[in-house]
Automatic annotation (TrEMBL):
<keyword id="KW-0805">Transcription regulation</keyword>
<feature type="region of interest" description="Disordered">
    <location>
        <begin position="112"/>
        <end position="134"/>
    </location>
</feature>
<dbReference type="InterPro" id="IPR051081">
    <property type="entry name" value="HTH_MetalResp_TranReg"/>
</dbReference>
<feature type="domain" description="HTH arsR-type">
    <location>
        <begin position="1"/>
        <end position="87"/>
    </location>
</feature>
<dbReference type="InterPro" id="IPR011991">
    <property type="entry name" value="ArsR-like_HTH"/>
</dbReference>
<dbReference type="InterPro" id="IPR036390">
    <property type="entry name" value="WH_DNA-bd_sf"/>
</dbReference>
<keyword id="KW-0238">DNA-binding</keyword>
<dbReference type="InterPro" id="IPR001845">
    <property type="entry name" value="HTH_ArsR_DNA-bd_dom"/>
</dbReference>
<protein>
    <recommendedName>
        <fullName>HTH arsR-type domain-containing protein</fullName>
    </recommendedName>
</protein>
<dbReference type="InterPro" id="IPR036388">
    <property type="entry name" value="WH-like_DNA-bd_sf"/>
</dbReference>
<keyword id="KW-0804">Transcription</keyword>
<dbReference type="GO" id="GO:0003700">
    <property type="term" value="F:DNA-binding transcription factor activity"/>
</dbReference>
<dbReference type="Pfam" id="PF12840">
    <property type="entry name" value="HTH_20"/>
</dbReference>
<dbReference type="GO" id="GO:0003677">
    <property type="term" value="F:DNA binding"/>
</dbReference>
Length: 134
C-alpha cells in the first residue's frame, strides 16, 4: 500500500493514471502529452509499473500501457476508515474526512512542537537527540 500511495503522490503520475483510465496507450503518446522529457515520463511509468498500477505489453513495435486499478482498492479501503459510517454522499464524506484530517494536522503540529521543546532538566530538545543518533 505504501508503494501505491507513493506512486500516486506525484501529479504527473496521477495524470498518467487518468489518461490510462480511458484506454491503453503507447509510451510515446503518453509522453507527448507532457512538457517534460521522454526519459522523465519513462521514469514515472517505471514507478507506476513497480507499484502494480500499470502494466505494459508489447504489441508489434509498440509497448502499450494499461491501468490496473486493483492496487488502489486496498488504499481506498484504508482511506474509507477515516470516513464516518453515516456519510452517504460524496459531499458528506469529503466534509467528514476534511474534519478528521484537520484533527490529524493539529496532532502532527502538536507532536512537532513537543519534540522541539527542550527538556526541563536542561537536556537538549528531543529533536536534537534524534538527529544526533541518526
Amino acid at each position: 500500500m505504501d508503494e501505491v500511495a507513493g506512486a500516486i503522490a506525484d501529479p504527473v503520475r496521477r495524470e498518467i493514471l487518468a489518461m490510462l483510465r480511458e484506454r491503453r496507450m503507447p509510451a510515446g503518446e503518453i509522453a507527448d502529452r507532457f512538457a517534460i522529457s521522454r526519459p522523465a515520463v519513462s521514469r514515472h511509468l517505471r514507478v507506476l509499473r513497480a507499484s502494480g498500477l500499470v502494466h505494459d505489453e508489447l504489441t508489434g513495435r509498440q509497448r502499450l500501457y494499461r491501468l490496473d486499478p486493483a492496487p488502489l482498492v486496498e488504499l481506498a479501503g484504508w482511506l474509507t476508515t477515516f470516513l464516518p459510517d453515516g456519510a452517504t454522499t460524496t459531499g458528506e464524506r469529503v466534509a467528514a474526512a476534511s474534519g478528521r484530517f484537520d484533527a490529524l494536522e493539529t496532532e502532527v503540529y502538536r507532536t512537532r512542537r513537543e519534540r522541539r521543546r527542550p527538556a526541563a532538566s536542561g537536556e537538549p530538545a528531543a529533536i536534537d537527540r534524534e538527529e544526533r543518533s541518526a
